[in-house]
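Most newcomers find our protein records easier to grasp once they have seen one. A learned vocabulary of local backbone shapes supplies the integers on the structure line. Here is such a record, shown just as it appears in the course material:
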Amino acid sequence: MKTILTIGRQYGSGGREIGQKIADHYGIKFYDKELLAHVAKESGFCKEIIQREDERPTSSFLYNLVMDTYTFGHGATAAFTDMPLSQKVFLAQFETIKSLAEQGPCVFIGRCADEALIDRKDVLNIFIHAPEEFKINRVRTYPDYSEQEQNGKRITDFMARIDRQRQSYYNYYASGKWGRADTYDFTIDSSVLGIEGTVRLITQLIDDFENRE
């Protein structure tokens, strides 16, 4: 495999699982939460701050001002220092994605990876979505979801909140629009073929993409 795959996803659609299975199929690197450790290592940012800002743009000037003291370690320019915290973290993540892509084929989940790699010709950008019922059944099994911890909030509200965060983050930093078909090379409903079927479909797309004339 020579292709770099980026996957945007609705929460509960199986995008992460699909991406992991594709990476395993080809024996290549997979970056979701794993990306954050690379960002911390390459940028000098505190890992906890990167996790706090992960796919969550903030408009709070006071938050950025207070937290800025704890973020950047070394080598910052004056212009970089004047940026809001959320933009510093995004730029560090942006550069890390480009650096990792230089090392060979891999799979990136979310985090505007398609925007970071927009000038490369070896990138396939996919968005995974699914109907609400399909996503609800999956989310109920997720370790990070607990109906008790949500204080009685509906699971649909929990799912919608995460997707709003992802949409806000993507639409703020990227040139396209999160989830819109014309932003990606392919958008796929993972409920049609199921997780395994969607994996097979994408691997076929990758093979055809690499063999195109």
